[in-house]
Amino acid sequence: MPSEVSADSLQTPAPKLIDRFGRHIDYIRLSVTDRCDFRCVYCMAEDMNFLPRAKVLTLEEMAAVGRAFAELGVRKIRLTGGEPLVRRDVMTLVRELGALAQLRELVITTNGSQLERYAAELKAAGVRRLNISLDSLRPERFRRITRTGDLEVVLRGIRAAQAAGFERTKLNAVVLKHRNHDEVVDLVRFACDEGLDLSFIEEMPLGVIGDHDRAEAYYSSDDIRRDLAGHFDLIPTTEQTGGPSKYYRVGGSASRIGFISPHSHNFCGDCNRVRVSAEGQLLLCLGQEHSVDLRHVLRAHPGDPERLKQAIVEAMHIKPKGHDFNLKAQPVILRHMNMTGG
Ligand code: SAM
Ligand code: SF4
Fold first, then answer.
1. What pTM value is reported for the model?
2. Is the CB of 83 inside a 6 Å radius of any atom of ligand 2?
């Protein structure tokens, strides 16, 4: 037995957010805005009503939320939306969060439309990695899926991210049957050529979208893997990036291909994350309504981080065990993905 107690053993352990099922929450996705310059067919309806400004958290309030989570042991924050980079003055929030000593990673999910302008600034502000959505490499098709997007602008954004020195940038592609399922090989080839990772995502039934029948458009991760098998050597890995993707390495390339499969391979058992919507709802599960109104706490007790932290700690008790998505039924979750923060 050591006769002296080491300084380390006297230190209070870092706080941890643990839910009822013993899952350790160390990752938050913070939706910076519900607005977007695209109207992707799986994410939004064509006519969307966005939140009035007074309901959206100010950038200062969002920074307070990020700080509170970091002090409670969260190590990774993903900024998302809506399109995070269309929020005015978003860089003030990015800089504030980028300077949080407790964080291991500040990352962003973006549609890429503003990256030409922002990539270098994001890198300088401490953003570690980018996820960029890219569902098609064909301009017409890209426009049909995003309704308003310009593929060339997004490709320039991807190049700007590479030039700014971002590494392990990941593309996200939602795959829909008869829309882009025949492009999965081209997308993997593009990712390998550009030195990017790529995740394929099964569409989730969030909000009424009016564009297509989600059950008919369903194209599973297994279908995609089968399509890729004749073209690439996919080597399973146990690599994790802290999210729900299951990864494969592509033989002869540095790229990793991930599959986010909420339907075919449920990932709730090792869920380590919660979301905060642009209006300050702490959403405890993407596929359930359990939530806590952090905006109320922030505005009822301004400048009181302890009240905010208490509300967050208590919220862990209502994190549900998992989602129960059903593509064949009407969406139970009426929130669109832009509200949820994908
Ligand atoms: N606007 C940014 C973007 O598109 O990357 C960030 C927000 S977006 C909601 C985040 C991710 O969610 C994107 O990769 C998008 O493709 C995905 N997404 C949106 N709606 C979805 C749905 N219904 N099912 C599955 N993924 C969805
Ligand atoms: Fe906008 Fe992203 Fe939703 Fe597309 S997926 S409409 S880019 S928020």
1. 0.91
2. yes
